[in-house]
Write a structure and sequence with these properties.
Blueprint: E1 6-15, E2 20-30, E3 35-39, H1 46-53, E4 61-70, E5 73-74, H2 80-86, E6 91-95, H3 108-120, H4 124-137, H5 143-147, H6 156-168, E7 174-178, H7 186-203, E8 206-211, H8 214-220, E9 223-228, E10 231-237, H9 238-243, H10 248-258, H11 268-275
Parallel strand pairs: 3-8, 3-9, 6-7, 7-8
Antiparallel strand pairs: 1-2, 1-4, 4-5, 9-10
Helix pairs in contact: 3-4, 4-6
Length: about 280
């Protein structure tokens, strides 16, 4: 396995609609089995950064400086065909509101099966068997039953599990979870966090967790990047950033989140257990 899966060096993304940078000078690296969190308020540049990593910037947004290397390849040199081959296979993503990424007229199992057939070349019978295995891997108890269900017949938490199964189906090297737990209730959110941690350990995934919720990244991540106005204001280990924040904005985020129970994730024993 490579030492780093993804290296971002001084990434700058310009918004030509407003004629101002959306992201400026973002740098980080993540390797197999590592989990990095990107936090900040709405509009801080979190999602634009992730869309740049996926080669999916919106119209009028452009990378104007810096570089992104995915599995050793400079993504600026990739053709659209090469990006299509890499996206979903080498780098994949899970977003908020999973129902909007699923076809409402096709059973979820068949959608997972189709991804396997397209991305891995498995024949139909083998793809179906693998799809059932993946549903079990994301902690779905009755995989055969859920396989036949349509998206509207499943809960938000179940749909998020389906989307995670689809994302990991081609065995990508890196997974981006962009506000993947935001729309879920607290109990289901905890289950999805546990699932992502389990998959990272078992599969050796590099994982980027994008969230405005410090409690989420405190549980999952080893390192944190704090974005404000498209610029990195602080980054370091979870312990450094959450125990000894250096920037006023980071301290403000921590103060705001204490009322949501962040403090219970900041003990040394919890962090040791999370890394075990």
């Amino acid at each position: 396995m490579p030492e780093t899966v993804l290296t971002v060096d001084e990434l700058t993304v310009h918004n030509h609609f407003t004629d101002v940078p959306a992201v400026t000078g973002v740098s980080f690296a993540v390797g197999p089995g590592q989990v990095i969190g990107i936090v900040g308020e709405s509009g801080s540049g979190k999602t634009i950064t992730c869309r740049a990593l996926l080669g999916l910037l919106p119209e009028l947004f452009e990378i104007t400086a810096g570089s992104i290397r995915l599995l050793g390849r400079d993504t600026a040199l990739l053709t659209e065909k090469e990006w299509t081959a890499l996206r979903g296979s080498s780098i994949s993503a899970v977003f908020q509101d999973p129902a909007s990424y699923l076809n409402p007229s096709i059973p979820v199992g068949r959608q997972l099966e189709e991804v396997l057939r397209i991305k891995t070349g498995l024949p139909r019978k083998a793809a179906r068997a693998r799809a059932l295995d993946l549903l079990t891997a994301v902690h779905i108890r009755d995989a055969e039953y859920v396989y036949q269900q349509f998206p509207h017949e499943l809960s938000g938490g179940m749909l998020q599990r389906i989307l995670i199964a689809i994302a990991i189906a081609p065995e990508p090297a890196i997974l981006i979870a962009d506000e993947a737990t935001t729309a879920l209730d607290v109990t289901v959110q905890a289950e999805i966090i546990d699932l992502l941690a389990d998959l990272t350990r078992r599969l050796g995934l590099a994982l980027i967790v994008v969230s405005h919720d410090l409690a989420v990244v405190a549980q999952l991540c080893q390192r944190i990047i704090v974005l404000r106005g498209g610029t990195v204001v602080e980054q370091g280990t979870v312990e450094q950033v959450l125990f000894s924040p250096q920037h006023e904005y980071t301290r403000l985020l921590i103060d705001e989140h204490h009322r949501f129970g962040l403090d219970r994730f900041l003990t040394a024993s919890d962090r040791a257990e999370a890394r075990a």
